[in-house]
């Protein structure tokens, strides 16, 4: 089948076998060159945050966890809030450009470039019984961007999505120090009763320091969720 690559816009021929057709396999929206340019997180990873150990200095590894996760777990305020995070891609130069086009230049359709890998990796690590909770944008950011990238990712999974978090801190987390990120709760919870005893997975585009998903996880735990994990497109 012929098509145009969603990223480079070059015309390409999609290679699909008879078995692909019989199993109704989705045609790839990327050419082979662009598809191979994505760097999947593979190999030995941190048990907690899913970061690839191959990208870290050996001194940054503490057993089966990275030093960042060990610090979260040694803090009584945050220990046990998040069971684990898993991510799909490495945040390399290629991914930075793709995310810039998707989020900051408003190219919503690019979410389709992630569908195959996102679905495969999510169901490798999480149950289809999970409830999905996307990280929200502030009203100002949603107006500027036109869509919530976390919600767009959650919609790829065809599982129940619960918009129970509301962002009330509009300042970007990346502009704050670690101390400020830990002390400033960016979310509030509404309609949390439906989470009692449930296993939930927070959905976001990128895991950097972990502060965003840890703040969300604490609210969800307080609302009665029995297990809280997170799944992100990228692990920086």
Task: Explain how this protein is built.
With 236 residues, the protein is α/β, with parallel strands linked by helices. It has 2 domains: 1-37, no CATH class; 40-235, Rossmann fold (3-Layer(aba) Sandwich), CATH 3.40.50. It has helices at 18-22, 32-37, 67-74, 93-104, 115-125, 139-145, 149-155, 178-183, 211-222, and strands at 2-4, 11-13, 61-62, 65-66, 85-90, 131-134, 165-167, 187-189, 199-207, 227-235. The chain has a 4-stranded parallel beta sheet. Strands 1-2 form a two-stranded antiparallel ribbon. Residues 5-70 form the Double zinc ribbon domain.
CATH topology call of the largest domain: Rossmann fold
**Helical proportion, percent range:** 25-40%
The unreliable regions are 19-24
Order of helices and strands: EEHHEEHEHHEHHEHEEHE
CATH architecture tag of the largest domain: 3-Layer(aba) Sandwich
Instruction: Give me the count of strands.
Output: 10
Tell me the β content: 15-25%
Any idea what the radius of gyration is?
A: 18 Å
CATH class categorisation of the largest domain: Alpha Beta
The SS-based structural class is alpha/beta
Strand order of the largest sheet: 5-10-9-6
Number of helices: 9
- Give the overall form: globular
- Main sheet characteristics: 4 strands, parallel
Structural domain tally: 2
Q: Distance between termini?
A: 35 Å
Give the overall pLDDT as a whole number.
90
Family: Belongs to the ComF/GntX family.
Domain Phosphoribosyltransferase: 145-235
Domain Double zinc ribbon: 5-70
Protein name: Competence protein ComFC
């Amino acid at each position: 089948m012929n098509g145009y690559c969603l990223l480079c816009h070059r015309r390409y021929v999609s290679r699909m076998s008879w078995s692909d057709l019989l199993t109704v396999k989705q045609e790839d929206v990327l050419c082979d060159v662009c598809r191979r340019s994505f760097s999947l997180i593979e190999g030995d990873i941190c048990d907690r945050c899913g970061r690839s150990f191959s990208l870290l200095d050996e001194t940054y590894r503490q057993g089966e966890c990275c030093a960042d996760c060990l610090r979260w777990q040694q803090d009584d305020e945050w220990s046990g809030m998040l069971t684990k995070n898993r991510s799909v891609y490495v945040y390399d130069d290629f991914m930075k450009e793709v995310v810039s086009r998707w989020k900051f230049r408003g190219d919503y359709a690019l979410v389709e470039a992630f569908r195959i890998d996102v679905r495969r990796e999510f169901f490798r690590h999480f149950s289809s019984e999970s409830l999905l909770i996307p990280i929200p944008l502030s009203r100002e950011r949603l107006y500027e961007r036109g869509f919530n990238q976390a919600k767009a990712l959650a919609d790829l999974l065809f599982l129940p999505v619960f918009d129970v978090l509301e962002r009330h801190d509009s300042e970007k987390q990346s502009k704050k120090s670690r101390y400020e990120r830990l002390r400033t709760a960016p979310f509030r919870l509404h309609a949390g009763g439906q989470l009692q005893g449930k296993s939930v997975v927070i959905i976001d585009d990128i895991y950097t320091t972990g502060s965003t998903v840890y703040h969300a996880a604490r609210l969800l735990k307080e609302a009665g969720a029995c297990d809280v994990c997170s799944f992100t497109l990228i692990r920086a």
